[in-house]
């Protein structure tokens, strides 16, 4: 007895010492709340604690998309390496670890952000006094933009705030005001803040501060002649030179804000030399090869020419000079060629000059409308008209036309190259197939009419739910052993799915289905089992519609029993069947043969008129 007790205690002690609780295993993922910057190399590390045995790891995506990462195994854990973080890696990622056959898992949500650049302010260095001006602050390569706030600050106070929107990568904020003289030299700040939980403070905010330059009309303009009374063959200097030595000299000072003039009158000899530039009002198309030609008139001697920019910038052109003229060649016009260009010509020691303003435009493509081929009936829809590679965009107008009437107008804005205009409306059935036009017009003086306007017209397609869904049975009143057809038809202006079903035990049981306007099922010999409720269901991208029909397959009476009691006290039973031939079988059983025969013949005569057979049975016999 004692020995048995000791053995039991030893076994229990070994069980206690050998028992290892499975629940002590844990899976840890680090970092726990990953927020990765676009472009960085980042890692997720998975470890299983309290496991001294061999472990296995696996990674999976809980949002059913690629992980865009590479797992790397070590002796103590597994690391998921993102070589270059992109927006695609935003995901919920799970690590599953196995130790001693026990599986544990943990998951984290990976978030991504991008905010690499300091904002850029433009327009601050060319403000016009007393006129409404717009400053632009652009923050590029932002993600997620809907979490960004852009603020304008003057004197430390916020004067304008703008929130970012979902789906964009570049935020442009505008600050509009009318500058005064005391605004010249004042500082203005654009501050962009990305508000994300877990984002380091040094990554959260970027700002730029610039000084504003307010352009004012010219002041203190003076023209002077030295000496005061010039004589022939003497040296003479005019501090503000006009284009010819006439008796009245005018000095006109002009800048972006205005002009001021002064004049002086004196008499000197007149030079007949003159410089001409052609074309006089150049308007060049981007991408074209163009030329400016400079000539000096009434000079029969050797001439020299030189070209310069009056706006202190490169010419981006190549001069070609002959004995009588000089040509400035623009091999491929670009926006950089916009400039005020001067040609100076010298003949017999006398120099003359002329200048023109070169303007540039770009309008190479017809507008593109999108969204017109997938309008949803009865819901608010947006059509988009995009005009790309436009310059200068602030001179463009985009119009939407329906039935020849303008229903929406949008003006372009300075500094953009692509204009997107939206037309929002709720389409009805009669809008299907209707035409809509997007017309873009570039309004520039000197632009040829054929280059001024481009438009596109498209037909709208309104997607409707199925209509006129009908289920029918042919023939209308089917009878047993006859051919029967059940068909389902529907109208839809886009791909639809038809399903023909029968109700069995309160549920729809599919009989046939297909794509298109019609499905059907046929029976060569209808029977009573084909009776019931049939349902036709049509579905497309916009909705569904159903119809149903109930019918019973007609069958003649069968196995009809008639009972009759005769005067002799016997009960006779007649079993009526449908006659399939001219044969009549009349079994007669029981007592009173003559009465039975008479009764049977009477029954036969009646039954023959109805297509039935008569079987008499006398009690107590059974047929």
TrEMBL record:
Keywords: Cell adhesion, Disulfide bond, Glycoprotein, Immunoglobulin domain, Membrane, Repeat, Signal, Transmembrane, Transmembrane helix. GO terms for cellular component: plasma membrane. Residues 1-24 form the signal peptide. It is a single-pass type I membrane protein. SMART domains: IG. GO terms for biological process: cell-cell adhesion. GO terms for molecular function: integrin binding. It is found in: Membrane. The chain crosses the membrane at residues 584-604. InterPro entries: ICAM_VCAM, ICAM_VCAM_N, Ig-like_dom, Ig-like_dom_sf, Ig-like_fold, Ig_C1-set, Ig_I-set, Ig_sub. Residues 21-109, 116-209, 287-357, 364-457, 465-552 form the Ig-like domain. The keyword Glycoprotein applies. This is Ig-like domain-containing protein. It comes from Pangasianodon hypophthalmus.
């Amino acid at each position: 007895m004692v020995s048995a007790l000791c053995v039991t205690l030893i076994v229990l002690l070994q069980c206690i010492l050998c028992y290892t609780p499975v629940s002590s295993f844990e899976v840890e993922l680090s970092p726990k709340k990953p927020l990765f910057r676009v472009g960085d190399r980042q890692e997720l590390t998975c470890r299983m604690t309290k496991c001294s045995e061999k472990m296995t790891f696996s990674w999976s995506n809980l949002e059913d998309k690629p992980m865009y990462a590479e797992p790397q195994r070590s002796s103590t854990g597994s690391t998921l390496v993102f070589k270059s973080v992109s927006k695609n890696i935003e995901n919920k990622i799970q690590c599953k670890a196995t130790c001693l056959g026990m599986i544990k898992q943990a998951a984290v949500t990976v978030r991504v952000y991008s905010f690499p650049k300091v904002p850029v302010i433009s327009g601050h260095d060319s403000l016009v006094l007393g006129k409404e001006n717009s400053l632009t602050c652009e923050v590029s390569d932002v993600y997620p933009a809907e979490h960004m706030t852009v603020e304008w600050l003057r004197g430390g106070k916020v004067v304008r705030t703008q929130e970012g929107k979902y789906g964009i990568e570049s935020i442009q904020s505008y600050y509009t005001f009318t500058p005064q003289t005391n605004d010249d030299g004042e500082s203005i700040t654009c501050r962009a803040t990305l508000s994300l939980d877990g984002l380091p403070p040094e990554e959260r905010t970027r700002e730029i501060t610039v000084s504003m330059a307010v352009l004012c009309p010219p002041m203190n303009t003076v023209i002077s002649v030295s000496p005061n009374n010039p004589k022939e063959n003497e040296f003479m200097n005019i501090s503000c030179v006009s284009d010819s030595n006439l008796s009245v000299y005018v000095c006109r000072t002009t800048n972006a804000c205005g002009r001021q003039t002064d004049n002086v009158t004196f008499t000197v000899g007149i030079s007949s030399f003159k410089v001409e530039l052609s074309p006089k009002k150049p308007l060049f198309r981007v991408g074209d090869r163009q030329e400016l030609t400079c000539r000096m008139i009434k000079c029969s001697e050797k001439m020299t020419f030189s070209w310069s920019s009056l706006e202190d910038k490169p010419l981006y052109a190549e001069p070609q000079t002959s004995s009588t003229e000089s040509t400035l060649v623009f091999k491929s016009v670009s926006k950089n060629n916009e400039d005020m260009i001067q040609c100076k010509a010298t003949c017999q020691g006398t120099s003359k000059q002329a200048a023109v303003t070169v303007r540039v435009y770009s309008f190479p493509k017809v507008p593109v409308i999108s969204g017109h081929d997938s309008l949803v009936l009865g819901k608010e829809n947006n059509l988009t008209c995009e005009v790309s590679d436009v310059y200068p965009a602030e001179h463009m107008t985009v119009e939407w036309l329906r039935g020849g009437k303008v229903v929406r107008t949008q003006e372009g804005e300075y500094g953009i190259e692509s204009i997107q205009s939206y037309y929002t409306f709720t389409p009805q059935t009669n809008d299907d197939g209707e035409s809509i036009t997007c017309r873009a017009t570039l309004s520039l003086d000197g632009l040829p009419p054929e280059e001024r306007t481009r438009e596109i017209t498209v037909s709208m397609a309104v997607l409707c739910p199925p209509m006129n869904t009908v289920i029918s049975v042919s023939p209308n009143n089917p009878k047993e052993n006859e051919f029967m057809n059940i068909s389902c038809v529907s109208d839809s202006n886009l791909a639809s799915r038809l399903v023909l079903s029968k109700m069995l035990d309160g549920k729809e049981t599919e009989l046939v289905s297909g794509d298109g306007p019609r499905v059907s099922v046929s029976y060569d010999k209808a029977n009573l089992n084909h009776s019931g409720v049939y349902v036709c269901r049509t579905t497309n991208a916009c909705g569904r519609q159903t119809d149903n029909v109930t019918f019973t397959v007609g069958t003649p009476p069968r196995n009809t029993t008639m009972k009759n009691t005769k005067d002799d006290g016997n009960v006779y039973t007649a079993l009526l069947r449908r006659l399939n031939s001219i044969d009549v079988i009349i079994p007669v059983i029981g007592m009173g043969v003559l009465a039975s025969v008479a009764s049977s013949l009477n029954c036969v005569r009646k039954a023959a008129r109805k297509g039935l057979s008569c079987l008499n049975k006398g009690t107590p016999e059974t047929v």
